[in-house]
Amino acid sequence: MSNDDSNRRAYPAPDPNLEILQREKEALAQQVKRLIRAEGKLYEYQQELDAQLKEYKGLYELNRKLNGIFNIQKIFEATVAYVIEQLEFERAVFFRKTEKESYCVCALDGYYDPFEKDQVSKLVIEQDSPCLSPLVAGREYLICTGALQEPGVAGCRIKLRMNEFFVYPLGFHSLPHALLIVGNSMENAAFYRRVDDTPGSLLSMGNLVGLVSSLIDNHIFFERMVQAREQEKLAEARYRDIFENAAEGIYQRTPDGKYIDANPALAQMFGYASPRELMTEVTDIGRQLYVDQRYYAELMRSLEKDGRVEGFETPMYRKDRSVIWVSLSMRTVRDSDGQVLFYEGMSEEITKRKMAEEALRESEQKYRQLSEALEQRVKETVDELRQKDRILILQGRQAVMGEMLSNIAHQWRQPLNLLALLVQDLQMTQKRGELNEEFIDANIKRTLEIIRQMSRTIDDFRYFFKSDQEMLEFRVLEPMEKALSLLEGSFEANGIRIEVIPTGDPVIHGYLGEFVQVLLNILMNARDALIARQVQDPLVSIKLFREEGKTVVSIADNAGGIPEEIKEKIFEPYFTTKGPEQGTGIGLFMCKTIIEKSMNGVLTVRNTEDGAEFRIELQM
Amino acid sequence: MGTSVGVGYSLHKNPADAGKEAAHQALQQANITRPDFVFVFATVGYNQQVLIQTIREATSGAPLSGCSGEGIITQGMVAETNFGVCVMTIASDELRFSNVSVKDIGVDVDMAGGRLAEEIRPLLAEDSIACFLFVDGLVFDFDPFRAAFEKSLQSDRHLPLFGGLAANNLATQKTYQYHDDQVFSQGISCVLMSGKGDVAWGVNHGCVPVGTRRTITRCKGNIIFEIDGIPALEALKDYVEDDSESQWNKVTLNLCLGFKSPEYLKPEYGEFIIRYMMGKNDAEGSVTIQSDVKDGTELWIMRRDKELIRDGLQAISHQIREKMGTRKPKFVMHFECMGRGKVVYREQEKIDLLRSLQEDIGSNLPWIGFYSYGEIGPVSRHNCIHNFTAVVTAVF
Fold first, then answer.
1. Chain B contact for A606, CB < 8 A?
2. pTM metric for this prediction
3. Of B366, B358, B340, B391, residue with least CA distance to B200
């Protein structure tokens, strides 16, 4: 039983005032409880407010600090320090875009182990890294926590030594200028501000990133401005250096013919002591400097028409009225309304060049004349040489002809003796009275036979020495047999054996007479060598065949070959090994000339195992 | 030479930098290079071993004692964060500091009191002034500890105990105590101060009861199961916002329990002793406090009152000044309940209050302290533990 029940029994008629007081007490107790609850809430809000104020104060101070920094690297460093000290994340890493469009660590904080710090400071995020693509596509941030993981981002945990982190892009461009990564390691996360996507966290990071992003943009713009200004200064200095030290005259001039600016080279070119003197004394360029006003008029017309001229050459006066040649390159500079502001350009003195050109022209003329004379001389010399060749060939032919005549004489001696005997026999038979018709007929028959034989010899001789009017196609075997026929007497007399080995019946296209002359020369050389070397069982071996579309004539002997030291010389004119009585030194030179120059063939010689082989190759 | 004391602090996140900075500041302020003793209070975010090692190196390996707190306090500065450290360096030919430690106090608090007394007894001297205790606040029950300690100490003289219960900022499962190179949990770091000097102190809570008297109807040791016949947690429910029930830490900072002070404490301490509810059991509906109670004990639901706290601090400075007279403190140790920090006061209010107190006791004094989970300070020659209280001890 409660106290209230016993009270009711003890006091059946309760005091209304007491009841009122009781109710008021109860109401008051409830109010106190509400106040206690409200007070708890108040303290909570108070803490949140303090935290926010602290953060905003920190952000304000960061803003002030960053605004006083003119080195972007210091901004990165101040930002990561703010993340650690004010936002109370464990770690922060800034990656900055490099010229190769990858991202390298430029500032970091919260890594207190030197090894970890070293490893993280070497990290590089490549342009094709999966964590970049969502940011490039416009994402405001990436987050990686136990519950929230962006594809491709969670893999960075180990490298960054962070278990939970934000990735924020900084700089408002297609590729961010920098990436800010903040977060916590797994083991220490409980002591730091947690990474989550609550509005408070995102607001804190957003405020920071917004502030720093603008500053970074401004600084990068400023850096580029400074770079551009430095380049501009450099270019200006370079221009001024070029302007002052250039070998060419550089200037700006007004449309009415006054110099606005001129470099020392221009003043020197026109014989003035300084640019100032030039600009002061020359007040009408056209009249004072141009020798021929037509050149000046043409120059101004070209400038008016095309806006520029290149390499305009004109004679001009120096201060002392001497004349120089000048090459001008100029352009017209106009204002936005198209009005000519000034002309600027370069001048190069070309007097020496002009003189050199004149000298060259004269030299060329002389050269041309000399060249023409030389050509004529060469032509004459060639003709002379050809004439000599012809004479040599003729001499060669005559030499062969002499040889042939000697052969004919040799061949005719026996038939002539026979004819003499026949005639004597006719006379003696008549004296004996035995002359009759039968004897006479037999005698005449025999005489005619001999004469026919002698006539054939003459015909063969004529065959060889008839002149070549045109190139003919003929069988090689035919002139070879004729040549051998002419020489067979002398070959037989010296015991020289001849073997002819034709393969097929090859033909050639050429001058028949000249070709026979070649054959006779080579055969006679072989014969002479065999005789001179007194070769046992002397042999001349002749082969006729086709090879690779050509007709080949090979004439080989077994006379021991040509000494190596003279092999290269045997085709030279007037070279002979036979002595002045026997050789002219023309034969083989003539053969080479005939085969290679007249008949477009090739004549070569080589030593075989036991002699020399001459090889003639001719087109079929 | 007398006594040279300096205090430094750092809020650096890097434990090596923080320890070095705080120690160097302290040495510089004391104008010494080799201290005789070092007090350190730090918060739990640091790698504690690295922090203490750095301070030891910077202070030439001088004996060191201290613990982790919820925040740190120095002259004109308070910082309730996970990263703060303050260091006091003392060089003195007047005062002697002997430090000892005991571990594993969670196993048997009675035994811990006895073990600590065993360590202290050989160090006690005629001129021993006071003991500073820095105790793990998560496992400590003061009453049995004190009984065992005072009994084992076997001293006729009253040895005042000052100190605070180490905190963990609810960020980790343990608090830390420092003893020379060692960093440990579930232990006591203790410093016996002897020599030519004295202490003046003040203790004040600033809480007021709300509602009517309540009675513990079932309890055991320091666990209260029922109040007025209903589960203890049920009895507190009306004072808590619905959405705060799950956030026990907030609840216990806004509400505390008041017990009638014993008669011998009332003149100095007032009507109520305040107790913080350091734990709860939802299944049993019970709450745990840091001293023992009995069935039938009367209690009141209490709330912090900012005006009373302000007035209480003035009372503390008054008590200290009264005892010191014209003498000036060599240094001041300040143990402030974490429930009286940022959970009640705006940041600037808190600093203003502190400065006001510091100015009252003496300007530019070497001042060091921390926000604790319980405060130890004698009242009427009785060593007591307090909650929601400030204990300020001036050594002069």
1. no
2. 0.63
3. B391
